[in-house]
What we know:
By secondary structure, the protein is α/β, with parallel strands linked by helices.
Amino acid sequence: MLLKMDMTGAGAGKKHIMTALGREVEVNADYTVDQGWESYTAEEHDRWDRLFARQVALLEGRAAPAFMSGLEKLKLSDGGIPDFRALSERLKALTGWTVVAVPDLVPEDVFFDHLANRRFPAGNFIRPERQLDYLEEPDVFHDVFGHVPMLAHPNFANYMEAYGKGGQRAANLGVLDHLARLYWYTVEFGLVNTDEGLRIYGAGIVSSKGESVFALESPSPNRVHFDLERVMTTDYRIDDYQQTYFVIDGFRELLAATLQDFGPVYERVKAAPTLAIDAVLETDKVYTHGTQEHAARVA
Length: 299
Ligand code: PHE
Ligand code: CO
């Protein structure tokens, strides 16, 4: 029924938007677009393959087992930029998630609505050759290689859905900045304890050539155990490697810590002072008290 209504009249429910990258595109009401898989050039598929090979070589022994097993289960190494249709089918069979294409960043409320419904919005463009190592906007490599493997893990999949629902609530309560820090320090830049030592699972780390080594091996950043309220009061940077990483014991711990009602938590963190990106507290369980030499270097 709904589908039929949307189809009547060309472009019904569609709108023109200017993306964060300044591109003008037509999107659906929920900001999704067709991935346009047929339009990728051979050069773009090859760029994906090179990025993929480079990261996989770094991630053996560095990425969390859950991430590596997600890569494998989803057959992301098949070669070329994944077709979201086939990828979604595999992912849906594992955890009920699908991957939908978006031109780039989507408005916060739209993003939360996708997550709350187990849809992961992924950028459909691939970074240009001259920005192979670093770009600020999430492209298909960051979003699919970085984020999607973890969505094959049941506890993490549940966490992401809960985050979407929690985001809708946080927006209404005016505490999005606090909740966003939780996303940043887990989904994007999280570390996890394993029997073999610390491993990375955050998408911002696993999709980055430099940070996948830095996050684990550099003496520069702090590494401290995850604490919900500590994380929610800690600033972060978007322009360089993190100065503090938070370590979880596993995805069950993460889910358990976030299942509680955040109402009282928000009241406390709103009243608490914001902590500097490099702060180390007496109450922290510290793995590494970083030298911060990276942040202090003269650029
Ligand atoms: N438990 C949170 C709340 O009550 C929701 C949430 C779950 C937020 C998981 C983030 C991650 O709002
Ligand atoms: Co991301």
